[in-house]
Amino acid sequence: MISLQNVSKSFGSGPSAVIALDRVDLEVADGEIFGVVGQSGAGKSTLIRSVNLLERPDSGTITVNERELTSLSDAELRVERRRIGMIFQHFNLLSSRTVRGNVELALEVTGAERRERRRRADEILDLVGLTAKAGVYPTQLSGGQKQRVGIARALAANPRVLLSDEATSALDPETTRSILELVRTINRELGLTVLLITHEMDVVKTVCDSAALLEAGRIVEQGPLVSLISTAGSRLARDLFPLGPVPRHAGSTVIEITFSGGSADRPVIAQLSRNHGLDVSILGAVIETIGGNQAGRTRLQIPGSAAGARAAIDDLRSQGLLVEVVGEGNR
Ligand SMILES: Nc1ncnc2c1ncn2[C@@H]1O[C@H](COP(=O)(O)OP(=O)(O)OP(=O)(O)O)[C@@H](O)[C@H]1O
């Protein structure tokens, strides 16, 4: 588990001080993949670097693997950090060492013997699909392969937690997908808890179980994706299912219905038209697979005011659907 409680961090002092993290509370459960999203400057890097105390917070506590890191001595912290792997946007590989050498490097600090280092490096390179590249240097690798080495290095010392700092931001969409698949595989097979930061909602959709939205150093929403998508007004849910700006339609009401779990395959719109005699138009729809289930949002236009469409909206809500009125035009 990763737990941040009331964590604050500022840079600089006086009027020019920047509050990068502002009383952040964050809970990442064991074995889950948790994504933190936010705009540039929101504090994502500061947050993830705080988790292993690469950045020491001004106040608050950070607990990882049941140890409160903020209370440890430097020597104790060095030991705990070995149980926290980290991967980076620009891979941070040593160009003077081979692929295997880069992975072995992570084991040198643990005091493992040479033969054991080699055995473990080869084992982990096999896991990330890079056995054939063990003897080559990083410059001879593609971006995706470099990140696989980064992952192998991060996993070499058997961490319980993996931190991912924009690990796919420098990769093309297909390579991103393959790296995210690998992250999902190691999460499942090794039971690893993963905390990642990203500015790409697609990464969250593809791989995360839970997410948080960071804004100007504050967590404004967090929770499992399946809960967020059925929370009225959730900004993360809107970003997961973007439908663009709401158009103005004179004399009609625009609603959005969120589908999740079993509701995704019900003929809701057909029933709405039939039961209420309404000419419903579909203005937009987006469906994704979240947590193995179909979920999505549909934007509908219903003729008349929201008051006039009330019976239809109540009917949808009584079926357990999340319905939000997002636009109401006057004639
Ligand atoms: N070492 C530093 N010295 C001064 N200010 C810093 C430092 N590191 C971060 N900041 C400031 O703290 C705020 C949060 O930065 P941070 O890098 O954590 O944001 P971010 O969400 O990761 O942004 P990006 O997506 O652009 O990397 C920003 O205003 C940034 O300028």
From TrEMBL:
<keyword id="KW-0029">Amino-acid transport</keyword>
<keyword id="KW-1003">Cell membrane</keyword>
<dbReference type="InterPro" id="IPR018449">
    <property type="entry name" value="NIL_domain"/>
</dbReference>
<comment type="subunit">
    <text>Homodimer. Forms a membrane-associated complex with FtsX.</text>
</comment>
<dbReference type="GO" id="GO:0016887">
    <property type="term" value="F:ATP hydrolysis activity"/>
</dbReference>
<dbReference type="GO" id="GO:0005524">
    <property type="term" value="F:ATP binding"/>
</dbReference>
<dbReference type="InterPro" id="IPR003593">
    <property type="entry name" value="AAA+_ATPase"/>
</dbReference>
<dbReference type="InterPro" id="IPR017871">
    <property type="entry name" value="ABC_transporter-like_CS"/>
</dbReference>
<dbReference type="InterPro" id="IPR003439">
    <property type="entry name" value="ABC_transporter-like_ATP-bd"/>
</dbReference>
<keyword id="KW-1278">Translocase</keyword>
<protein>
    <submittedName>
        <fullName>ATP-binding cassette domain-containing protein</fullName>
    </submittedName>
</protein>
<comment type="function">
    <text>Part of the ABC transporter FtsEX involved in cellular division. Has ATPase activity.</text>
</comment>
<keyword id="KW-0067">ATP-binding</keyword>
<dbReference type="GO" id="GO:0005886">
    <property type="term" value="C:plasma membrane"/>
</dbReference>
<dbReference type="Pfam" id="PF09383">
    <property type="entry name" value="NIL"/>
</dbReference>
<comment type="similarity">
    <text>Belongs to the ABC transporter superfamily.</text>
</comment>
<dbReference type="GO" id="GO:0006865">
    <property type="term" value="P:amino acid transport"/>
</dbReference>
<keyword id="KW-0547">Nucleotide-binding</keyword>
<feature type="domain" description="ABC transporter">
    <location>
        <begin position="2"/>
        <end position="241"/>
    </location>
</feature>
<dbReference type="InterPro" id="IPR050086">
    <property type="entry name" value="MetN_ABC_transporter-like"/>
</dbReference>
<dbReference type="InterPro" id="IPR027417">
    <property type="entry name" value="P-loop_NTPase"/>
</dbReference>
<dbReference type="InterPro" id="IPR041701">
    <property type="entry name" value="MetN_ABC"/>
</dbReference>
<dbReference type="InterPro" id="IPR045865">
    <property type="entry name" value="ACT-like_dom_sf"/>
</dbReference>
<keyword id="KW-0813">Transport</keyword>
<keyword id="KW-0472">Membrane</keyword>
<dbReference type="Pfam" id="PF00005">
    <property type="entry name" value="ABC_tran"/>
</dbReference>
